[in-house]
Each structure stands twice: as structure tokens, then as C-alpha cells.
Fold each of these.
Amino acid sequence: MSTATFIKRSYVVGVRLDLSPNSARPKSAGRPGLAGLTRGALAQALVEGGVAPPDKARMRAGQIWRWMHHHGATDFSAMSNIDKATRTTLAERFELARPEVVARQVSADGARKWLIRFEPGVEAECVYIPDVGRAGALCVSSQVGCTLNCRFCHTGTQALVRNLTAAEIVAQVQIARDDLGEWPSEREDRRLSNIVFMGMGEPLYNLGAVADAIDIISDNEGLAISRRRMTVSTAGVVPQIAPLGARTQAMLAISLHATNDALRDELVPLNKRYPLAELMDAIRGYPGLSNARRVTFEYVMLNGVNDTLAEARALVQMLAGIPAKINLIPFNPWPGAPYECSDWATIEAFAGVVNRAGYASPIRTPRGRDILAACGQLRTESLKVRASARRASGADVA
Ligand code: SAH
């Protein structure tokens, strides 16, 4: 769907939308935040903000970068290798504080979920899942709400409020690291080792900010999570798949869920625009695929909908020749959902077919279900309240 279509549709239903490509957009308080700037943009901001002359800007940017992304500083006063006058100017011109964490929940299984308020009425969730990837994965949101309306997904019942900025995506990682107590970033035993763009929203409808965030998060002098430990999941925005690879070198995940167009049109309406044949072509062309760098295919198990053995065989056939991993995701229920999870025997039989075709460990244990933190359960209230109503009430809506 084009940006123009988004804007038109969103205005018709009265939802506020900001697709501003400027990921360094100043916060409402007025001072621009620094956390979402790439190294080059940070140096430039320092020159423009009168903090450093052009010949010193890179050096200063390097110092600030390290405090921000390696030590997790939220205050310029901590930057002990920067002289006091410069620190004062920095604090006058720029913002380092994190967005507000409005709620924090911990699941019985160790998953943690944070509800983050980026500005009044604009909130998204992010989830830390232990024992995923090398140590544990942070599932980050790329948008508040979503335009895709996948029928089994809770987020899909929430219209799009707006894209998140690079700063807001990076902030999710910083907040997780604050909470896990993992500053400085170089710790060997850190529990946050992987990032998955599988929270709220469609990352390929916000590729600019997602790519900047990946540049920032992967920097070795900063948060230092390698690109190979970052996975971007898409419902299949075909024209953005090659650009994603070229721009980020991140790992690719595809929310597949069906092996024929008729069913996929129903489950993932985006399929009507980019049908399976086109999607599979784009996936085959993803740069850098190999057995060490596989595409992940997500397949949600819906009782009586997509869970027959014939479909398992069709799935395996469809993926022939693609270095692939398959994650079978037991459907996670949410209030009012029109589906049920397949029963365990069916999931195991389905997994058996997939396993015999050579794909390992396919059933993904649901994590954080008790706090609605599992795949597809994320949703915030942000969109229910129109911008006009928020202004009228002056309220922060949780
Ligand atoms: N829009 C992107 C990013 C979201 S990823 C995408 O579609 O890939 C979230 C993953 O959780 C997707 O694979 C989605 O299909 C899956 N999911 C959504 N709702 C779910 C549910 N109720 N139970 C299990 N998985 C679900």
C-alpha cells in the first residue's frame, strides 16, 4: 500500500498520522533527542547546535556516543571526559532522557513487557524473552498500531497511530538494558543478545527509521548487537524486501501462515496486493542467504484453518531450495479472537512432516502469555482516542 493510500484512509477515519521520515524529530518538550541519530547525524547536530566546531565534531560525537550507547547515560552531567561548559550547552540544546515507562509486567516464565509512552497518547509495548537466540531476545515495535489487519493478530485490531522514530526504537533497547541492569554494553554475560522486529507494526512500512535504528544498535562502540542477531519480520511488503537486505544486512523473517493465496488473502490481507508467488521470488532474492543465514518462516497454528498434513507438505514444497527455518507458533488467544489454537497432537503431526523434510526445532513455546506479551498479543489503547479528543481533555491516556 502506498503512503498516499495510508494518509487518505487514515484521515477518513480521523486517526492522526505522522509518517515523517525525519527520525531525529524533536520531542514535544522542544529539545531534540540524540539517541536516534546515526554517528554522522550526531556530529552534524553538534555543529548545528553550536556545541562543537566542524573539526572537533567527530571526536565529540564519539565521546557522547559512547556515554549514550555504551554506558547508557541519561544525563549529560555523567560525561566526565567532556568539559563542564560543553556539558551545560549540551543539556540546554539536547535531550538524553528516555521516554516514560508507564507499565512493566513480568511473566511467570521470565518474559518482561514494558508499555512505553513516547508522547501523550502514543504508546507501544516491547517484550524481553529469555532463552531466545544466544541468550535472550527483545521484541521491539516499529509502529504504534498497524495497518495490516491480519485476522489472527491483536495488534491488527488497533489502527495505525504513527510510525516510531529511530530514537523511539533505540529507546526500547535502552529501556530493556536499564531494566536488565546490563550497562555497560560490553558485558560478556548479557541476557539481551538478540533483537527481533516482531512487536507492534509492520517494520517494512517504516524502513528508514528501522534501518537507522539497526545502524545505531549494531555499532560496536555502542549497544553492540550484531546485525546477524537482528531479525526483521514482515507480513510480506515485497518491494521493501531487497532494500531491507541492502540497507541493513539484518536477518529476514516472513509471516507466512498459509500455503495458498485464497487462505492467505483471508488471514493476511496484504497478500491480495503481494501474492505468494511474488513474495517467494522476493525472498529467494534476499541478499546473503546461506545455510548459516536462513530466512525464518513464521506459521501460526490455527485450529481447523491451516493445520492439515497436506498443508504441512505444501509448506515444505514451497520452501524447497530456500535456506529456511520454520517457526510453528501456537496461536496465542486474545479477547474476541476469531480463532483457536490447533491442538497439541495436530501441531506435533504438522511438525513431524516439517522435521522429516529436514527443518529442525519448529514449535515455538509461547512466552509471556499470562501478561499478553506473546506473539500477536500486543496492543495499546493509543488509537482509541483521537488526537482532537486528547487535546480537548488534556489527558494522558494510558
Ligand atoms: N508485521 C510484521 C511484524 C509483526 S511480527 C509481521 O507480520 O511479520 C509478529 C508475529 O506474530 C507475526 O509472525 C504474526 O503473524 C504473529 N502473530 C500475530 N498474532 C498472533 C497470535 N495471535 N498468535 C501467534 N502468533 C501471532
Note: Residues 150, 152-153, 198, 202, 233-235, 255, 298, 300, 329, 331-332, 375-376 surround S-adenosyl-L-homocysteine (CB under 6 Å).
Amino acid sequence: MPVIAVDGPAASGKGTIARALAKHFGLPHMDTGLLYRAVALNLWRWGGDPGNEFEAVRACNDIGVEPDDPELRTEPVSKIASMISAYPSVRSALLERQQQFAAQPGGAVLDGRDIGTVIAPEADLKLFVTASPEVRAQRRLEELLRRGMRAHHADVLADIRARDERDSTRDVAPLKPAADALVLDTSDLGVDEAVAEAVRLAEQRLTIEGS
Ligand code: CDP
């Protein structure tokens, strides 16, 4: 059964695409960003220092991931997640959980930054979902407003650019497409179009009977 890796930068639409692929092929799905967010939330609740790798790695113990917890998506937690995800010890503390998920006999879909490069380099399909920073900032802004949070386009764009910079320049598992990834640029695609294109690419690559 197939393993599908979906990677890409913040607000590229990778989560939506990964969920849609999982549903389409009847596979379990893991949003690996939630693991980093859960560690960040732990640290934030203790008042730990995200600049200190030892404190960050301690926050990896006993993380409970409640995907619907709105606190996981707040700006301070997003920022801390981006900071602590650069620590090699944090990444290795979360590695096994992700690799076990990817190794399930029935196959799996995982989305994140390093699924195709580090977590599941043997994945049957690797998608790298991207979009321009302006389009991603607009999407993230709409998402924040929908959740009742206050935000401005310029601030969200600056945050996206800062996160792109941190994610792509870190030493361990930097954000970059795997050599054999298919790149899907969603800048000019609506959600339905992006999902349809991802399903088309997946069916082509996996030669699985689509439902
Ligand atoms: O899509 P967005 O960047 O808003 O969030 P996310 O995918 O939930 O990821 C949260 C943070 O965790 C990001 O800033 C990444 O730096 C980090 N992350 C990572 O380093 N590796 C992963 N496999 C997933 C997320």
C-alpha cells in the first residue's frame, strides 16, 4: 500500500491536499506540523525558553496532540514551533513516531517539511506543494480572520517570509523538494482545482484505481 509524502512551506495548502489524498485513497493521515506545534505549546505553557535546546527537547516528552485545540494554531505557538523545529534533538525525538506512522502496513499520507527527504525517503509519491509568499499570506490571513483572530496582511506576509527563511536555511532537514518530488504550485489554483490536480498526479504515479 502506498506511502504519500506531502511537503511544502507555510500556508501552501499541503494540509488540505494531504487530507484530500488520504480520503481519496482511504489512507490514514498525519499532519506532522502538529507534533512540532504540540511541543511548542508544551514549552509555552511551562514558560520555557524556545532559545534553549535543552528546554525544547524536554518539552517533547508526553506530548498529547489534540488536533482541534485552537491553542496549537496561535501566533506565539506557531513562532515557537518554527524555532524549536530547527533543533536536531527535537527532530530526532519526533522521528520514530513519524516513521512508525509511515511504515503502517496499509500505507499512509504524511504532510510536513521533510517527509520526502528524511521521514519517508522511499515514499511511493512525493508532492512538494508551494505558492507565492503573497498568495500564502492572503490564505493565512483569511484563515486567521475566520478563526476570529485579528491580523493584517503585511504582518502575516512578514511572518511567512521569516518562517520560509528559518525553514529553508536550518542545518537539519531544511525545507526543500526531494530530488524525485513532483512540484505543485497552487498560486493560481483554488482549493478544488489544487486537490483535483494532486489526485490526478497521484493516480498517475501510483496507478491505483481511484475511487
Ligand atoms: O503550515 P504551517 O507552517 O503554518 O504549519 P505546520 O505545517 O503546522 O508546521 C509548524 C512548524 O513546524 C513549521 O514552522 C515548521 O518549521 C515545523 N515543521 C517541521 O520543521 N517539520 C515538519 N515535518 C513539520 C513542521
Note: The chain has a mean pLDDT of 93.
